[in-house]
Amino acid sequence: MPESTFLDSTELVLNMGPQHPSTHGVLRVILKLDGEKVLGTDCVIGYLHRGVEKIAENRTYAQFNPYVDRMDYVAAVSNGLGYCLAIEKLLNVEAPPRAQAVRVILTELNRVASHLVWLGTHALDIGAITPVFYCFREREEALKIFENYCGARLTTHAFRIGGLQYETYDGFEREVLAFCDMFLPKVDEYEELLTNNRIWAGRLQRVGVLNAEECKEYGVTGPVLRAAGVKWDVRKAQPYSGYEQYEFEIPTRENGDTYDRYVVRMQEMRQSVRIMRQAVEKLAPGPIMAKVPKVIKPPVGEVYVSIEAPKGELGYYVVSDGTTQPYRVRVRPPSFVNLQALDRMVAGGLVADVVAIIGTIDIVLGEVDR
Amino acid sequence: MADEQKPAGSPSPAQQGAGGANPKAGAAAGAAKTAPPKPAAAAPPKPPATMAATPWDSELARDLRNRFGERIGETSTYLGQDFLVAKPDAVIPILEYLKLEGDFDYLVDITAVDWPKKPERFELVYILYSFAHNRRVRVKTAIADGYRPASAVGVHLTANWLEREVYDMFGIEFAGHPDLRRILLPEDWQGFPLRKDYSIVQQDERWVRENLGIESGQ
């Protein structure tokens, strides 16, 4: 008989994932437990690694555009916007106003769609089954607009370097406004189910706290940072695509816990509707494509351009050597960076809170692994 | 064939050809031909004027130069983005100084670029942001293959995973990193994919054979 077994130890190592419904993809978390208490975690990632950055070096600038949709696939439009803006910056061109307004509409619509996936699955993880059906019902309406616009629902490839390939279809404005009118009461509906629900509040409040200092240390951005009280949003701080013309608030909360992150995202969806309505009003006839050469050959140089994706700051660092293919494309993925803070957020908490915290960071493994 | 024929008939080749070689002429031709895309046609003449990096003249740049002297080689601005090139051993002190004195408290990203033909093969890039001043700065340095740059984890915790990824993809080892393991690729994988001499179809055959039980992943 062995002298001591793992049962004698107070520390239990538990493997969670990579195939686990609550890790939102193929994420493996190794948990070190003392009874119900989590002592520490180790994330094992890379199961979805496809070498997107390597692929970029072997494609032309335009050819690489559809690949970025496959990173954060629930917010493909945002990925595309960031990439197009980065290359436009390298070329020193700007999309025409009409293209910018359409971009804003679709990106905000995508933010809503992304937050709906988060809300539905997050609530499901906690044990509330109803919201996921409601969320996916409304998300369907958003996806229909994408489909009508560009033919794809998920990996949209909606934008081109320099603007848009497609003019909006007949009834685009009407459908977007109809979505806005339909959607706001639905947000109230979700909030009725959850916001004052005692079980919801009990499972979320004071769970996975990350304060403002820790957020900055870990480079955490997006709703997680704002829930900790930092009023920072790339759309306001360094506006792009004409965001400076729109009136909207940056929702913030003070406690930096899972509940606050829930509240922040709910308010963000309302703000997105507000932006979409203003953008539809701004939609004047005009060109949708800037003057970009057919063969894109940016001059030698490098830029870093970032946008506010639904998950946080999504950045592209692109190096051009003057040829038709990018010399280097580095994607600064918000999910990857935010996931790093998981260890800090769960340490000292309960094992049941781990799924709540993974849900609240709102990761997409396609973007974590690239 | 179809691609070659199409532009021949349309009015675009003149603009297109000129746009590539001489944006100014292209823009003039475009403006003369069609009236509607006026704002777009007005944009291209800008590039030649702003496409070169210009010296970055600001209080912060002067401040850094005074403090680090010879260890900072270049302070420039390109397309409105400020960056400085420093000696490898000066990077961590600069990050520290910028964090404590310049409020650059958010390390956005660490990445590398491989230039196999240069004697100092890798270019390490640190992107910083200051919430207080709403400002970004890039700190760059060039290191030779095998050089072990100091880890930035002591200054910014977020450097942990970012440096692991740089190690994973480029094989740059960071001295003093608390947990330098591969992060995206399997731990026993051979080779560093984002190096330029690593072909896009290349893979660790042995790993694929042993772990996936197939001859090739292609």
CATH architectural type of chain A: Orthogonal Bundle
First-to-last CA distance of chain B = 31 Å
Query: In one word, what is the shape of chain A?
Result: globular
When the domains of chain B are counted, the total is 3
Please report the distance between the alpha carbons of the first and last residues of chain A. 47 Å
Note poorly predicted spans of chain A.
Answer: none
Strand content of chain B: 15-25%
Written account of the structure:
The complex is a heterodimer of chains A (370) and B (218). With 370 residues, chain A is α+β, with helices and mostly antiparallel strands. Chain A has one domain (49-332, 352-369): Cytochrome-c3 Hydrogenase, chain B (Orthogonal Bundle). Chain A is built from 15 helices and ten strands. Chain A has a three-stranded antiparallel sheet. A three-stranded antiparallel sheet of chain A has the order 8-9-10. In chain A, α3 (76-91) runs antiparallel to α4 (97-126), α4 packs antiparallel against α5 (130-150) and α4 runs antiparallel to α11. The model of chain A has no long low-confidence stretch (mean pLDDT 89). Chain B starts with a helix and ends in a 6-residue tail after the last helix. Chain B folds into three domains: 2-50, no CATH class; 55-184, 2-Layer Sandwich (Beta Polymerase, domain 2); 192-218, no CATH class. Chain B is 36% helix and 19% strand. By secondary structure, chain B is of the alpha+beta class. The interface between A and B is large, with 54 and 53 residues.
Index terms:
heterodimer, A: 370 residues, alpha+beta, Cytochrome-c3 Hydrogenase, chain B, three-stranded antiparallel β-sheet, 14% strand, B: 218 residues, Beta Polymerase, domain 2, 3 domains, six-stranded mixed β-sheet, 6 strands, 19% strand, disordered N terminus
